[in-house]
Design a protein that fits this description.
151 residues, alpha+beta, three-stranded antiparallel sheet, two-stranded antiparallel ribbon, 5 strands
């Protein structure tokens, strides 16, 4: 975190309250009191980006939401996805979108989950196989709107 604003001591109780109202109540910044000052802290750009990545990774949809969205966007259900991965793994084809790195048994287990979290690496792997970008998947998990998966 970095310092956004400082109120140096000595300050009056009124000045302290005005500082807290302005930076904490209105702007939502944490306030820290040191021996010499009050500090209003804010997150750095890097910290904000990391927090956003963590927030997106924790987005979840039910298995039905995900399968329905994929079906509406591609016409495929989970059985079709498993068959496609199996077909690509069984063929002597060159790796396509890292599909050959997908453990088919683990994928079958993952697809039985009640909830799907955006941060699960299988979401990216299957999304990549189906031609979805990271941004499309993020928006889909954010909104549960299958049209975000359409090209």
């Amino acid at each position: 975190m970095e310092i956004r604003a400082i109120l140096n001591k000595p300050y009056t109780e009124k000045q302290k309250m005005e500082f807290i109202v302005e930076y904490n109540h209105k702007q939502g910044l944490p306030i820290v009191e040191t021996e010499t000052e009050l500090q209003a802290l804010c997150y750095t750009v890097t910290e904000l980006e990391k927090r956003e990545q963590q927030r997106i990774a924790m987005l979840s949809l039910t298995a039905a939401d995900v399968e329905r969205g994929i079906y509406k966007a591609t016409g495929m259900d989970f059985d079709d996805i498993i068959a496609k991965v199996q077909s690509l793994c069984d063929s002597s084809a060159e790796p396509q979108n890292d599909v050959l790195n997908i453990d088919i048994k683990a994928l079958k287990i993952e697809l039985k989950a009640n909830n799907f979290y955006r941060g699960n690496p299988y979401v990216d792997a299957v999304g990549n196989l189906l031609g979805f970008s990271k941004e499309q998947l993020d928006e889909f998990f954010e909104t549960n709107d299958y049209t975000k998966l359409l090209n």
